[in-house]
């Protein structure tokens, strides 16, 4: 995986597969993109709540995730990352990609 230039796509595909397998436990699985091409990879709907999930190979600032959370009044968001350890940053939880 380290030698591939499509790491991000592969990891997103893996996460999508895992989320899709468990789709029956949610009310919907979506993505979000603005006209300015800001995006959140996955939005999980559970009842009246939305849970945004960004997939990242390396770290990075969760600007788009934060924008989505503010716009849709989400109390918590998630990042699945290959390189970052488990961490809770106020209203965002970083989950190592292998746990997805």
Helices and strands, with pairings:
Elements: H1 7-21, E1 28-33, E2 39-46, E3 49-56, H2 63-71, E4 77-81, E5 87-89, E6 92-96
Parallel strand pairs: 3-4, 4-6
Antiparallel strand pairs: 1-2, 2-3, 5-6
Q: How would you describe this structure in keywords?
A:
6 strands, alpha/beta, 6-stranded mixed beta sheet, 2 helices
Order of helices and strands: HEEEHEEE
Number of helical regions: 2
The largest sheet, given as strand count, sense and whether it forms a barrel, is:
6 strands, mixed
Kindly provide the radius of gyration, computed on alpha-carbon positions and rounded to a whole number of angstroms. 13 Å
Overall body shape: globular
Distance between the termini: 17 Å
Question: How much β-strand is present in the residues?
Answer: 35-45%
State the strand order across the main sheet.
1-2-3-4-6-5
Fraction of residues in helix:
10-25%
Q: How many strands in all? A: 6
Mean pLDDT, to the nearest integer, reads 89
Unreliable sequence segments: none
Q: Which structural class should the secondary elements be placed in?
A: alpha/beta
Explain this structure to me?
The chain is an alpha/beta fold and about 100 residues long. About 25% of the residues lie in helices and about 35% in strands. The chain contains two helices and six strands; from the N terminus they run αβββαβββ. A six-stranded mixed sheet has the order 1-2-3-4-6-5, sandwiched between helices. The two termini are about 15 Å apart.
